[in-house]
Amino acid sequence: MFFRSSKINEFRLWGLLFTLAGMGLMILGTSGIVFWGQAGKIFAGIFMVIGMIAMLISVGVYFWAGMMSTSATMLTCPECSRQTKMLGKTDRCMYCKTILTLDPGQATQHPADTTQT
Description:
Keywords: Cell membrane, Membrane, Transmembrane, Transmembrane helix. By secondary structure, the chain is mostly helical. The protein folds into two domains: 1-71; 74-117, no CATH class. The chain is 52% helix and 12% strand. It is built from two helices and four strands; from the N terminus they run H-H-E-E-E-E. The strands form two sheets. Strands 1-2 form a two-stranded antiparallel sheet. A two-stranded antiparallel ribbon has the order 3-4. Helix 1 packs antiparallel against helix 2 (40-70).
């Protein structure tokens, strides 16, 4: 994971970055009209199209994150005792960033064996 946060939050972050990049490109393209007049219209058109594509990608990323969020496993974090969502075999808590897993083979601490022989 890139920023060491939960996978769902990372997908939402990428959606936000695409939204901001698309809006920035559209504003940059509009500035071409202000500075170059008639010749800037082509510049503005190109950057408007590229910005719109980035905005559509962000809509797709947000939709994908929402669909994954609906099928995510809900569990209670052992550190902060809040309910969090988990994707895949390992993920991080959305609140305290604790590494979580449901796979006993990947767990770092195993529960103590309480059976006595």
